Amino acid sequence: MPSIPSLTFHAPSSSRLPSFLFPLSPPPPPIPFLRPRFISLKAMALEDGKDHRLARISSSIRIIPDFPKPGIMFQDITTLLLDHKAFRDTIDIFVERYREKNISVVAGIEARGFIFGPPIALAIGAKFVPMRKPKKLPGEVISEEYALEYGTDKMEMHVGAVQSGDRALVIDDLIATGGTLCAAVRLLERAGADVVECACVIELPELKGREKLGHRSVFVLVKG
Amino acid sequence: MLEEENGVDPRLQAISAAIRVVPHFPKPGIMFNDITTLLLRPKVFKDVVEIFVDRYRDMGISAVAGIEARGFIFGPSIALAIGAKFIPLRKPKKLPGEVISEAYVLEYGTDCLEMHVGAVHPGERVLVIDDLVATGGTLCAAIRLLGPMQIEWKACLYTCRVPFLELPNQVNLCQYSALRSLQANVATESSTHC
């Protein structure tokens, strides 16, 4: 392992380290071999014509066949996260939609909801509430069971994270059957919040997640 | 530590106060540092991100790697602000594409951290983010995944109890910063690690 100089940090305002220690190079070019397997997703046209951003967002999502099991075409957003502009645009579109809606809570569903939720929450001045698998949250929790294809799972939220009168947004990377989103919505409503909308990057319409969410509003950027 | 080097940064006090200590989680004797209460305070959460962004924005960092799952909460906002990509480092079998894996030791048994092949390549400058460093086990796995040439910095919200010199050698070779050192701030604590 090469020796790395031992450095002392100074205050953030003077965090420029001597340039000879770090020969800076420009950011590397995009990684071509990650792209060939993309299948074009239909970008949802928004009424105010944001298609140019949606096209890039859509094309940055990678499809992985037969994951986690044969027959499933997995929508992989990790490649979107490697495209800084596409990731930036994704967050911007959500922020533009929600910043004037007086949202006080953004609830993100573990784990990919943790990637998109906090930047939105920070930009609109809302608190971020992680919705987690069982036994991950350390404090007192409320739980909601939901159905899987085989069996059930549980989602948990900390007691006291949300109050009556909070206006909530639920965020996940993708809506499929709507099971996890439903569980999140129920937890928030049990705590007294008004769930304004569920927002996802991707929707798989054939799995009818919107039906499962009933009257509740769902907003997505791209459809698979 | 940042708080020592800066003198008194008023933001750090609020950040420290916003973290809740939950006794006996996940098992008796452990004082768990819960950052979810910090996330309920938008101004404090914003300050955390801004402190890291101020520190790293001019360092030519091209990628921020966040350790599942609480590293996912802090890493992306930093990545977006400094113009870097975000790379999730995940538990086994979560990433759908081809991965590289690194095992690390737990108190009982081992676990594994994975990263997508092609997410990062030689020459990139990478920041690794997590909410907490304790024994440094997951941090070391992340460093090994990313490769000895690539890790420049590692940032955590805070360190817990483990004196810097006791961290494994691989960590000593990397500079790290912490917003809060629990050794200084926690008055009552069990004798076992946090």
Automatic annotation (TrEMBL), chain A:
Q: Which domain of life is it from?
A: Eukaryota
Quote the pathway field: Purine metabolism; AMP biosynthesis via salvage pathway; AMP from adenine: step 1/1
Any one GO BP annotation for this protein: purine ribonucleoside salvage
EC number(s): the record gives 2.4.2.7
Give a Pfam family name. Answer: Pribosyltran
Reaction(s) catalyzed by this protein?
A: AMP + diphosphate = 5-phospho-alpha-D-ribose 1-diphosphate + adenine
Q: What class of enzyme is it?
A: transferase
UniProt KW keywords: Cytoplasm, Glycosyltransferase, Purine salvage, Transferase
Query: Where in or outside the cell?
Result: Cytoplasm
Residue ranges occupied by any Phosphoribosyltransferase domain in the UniProt entry: 82-210
Instruction: Offer an example of a GO molecular function term for this protein.
Output: adenine phosphoribosyltransferase activity
Any one cellular component term from GO for this entry?
A: cytosol
Listed NCBIfam families: apt, PRK02304.1-3, PRK02304.1-5
- Oligomeric form and interacting partners: Homodimer.
Q: Which family, according to UniProt?
A: Belongs to the purine/pyrimidine phosphoribosyltransferase family.
Q: What is this protein called?
A: adenine phosphoribosyltransferase
Native species: Cocos nucifera (Coconut palm)
Automatic annotation (TrEMBL), chain B:
- Enzyme Commission number: 2.4.2.7
Q: Which InterPro entries match?
A: Ade_phspho_trans (IPR005764), Adenine_PRTase (IPR050120), PRTase-like (IPR029057), PRTase_dom (IPR000836)
Ranges for domain Phosphoribosyltransferase come to 39-148
- Highest taxon, organism lineage: Eukaryota
* Alphabetical UniProt keywords: Cytoplasm, Glycosyltransferase, Purine salvage, Transferase
Which SUPFAM superfamilies does the record associate with it? PRTase-like
Q: Where is this chain primarily localised?
A: cytoplasm
Q: Does the keyword Glycosyltransferase apply?
A: yes
Q: Give the enzyme class.
A: transferase
Any keyword Cytoplasm?
yes
Question: What GO molecular-function term can you cite, just one?
Answer: adenine phosphoribosyltransferase activity
Per UniProt, subunit arrangement is: Homodimer.
What PANTHER family does the record tag this protein with?
A: ADENINE PHOSPHORIBOSYLTRANSFERASE (PTHR11776), ADENINE PHOSPHORIBOSYLTRANSFERASE 5 (PTHR11776:SF22)
Query: Which family does the record claim for this protein?
Result: Belongs to the purine/pyrimidine phosphoribosyltransferase family.
Write down what this protein is called.
adenine phosphoribosyltransferase
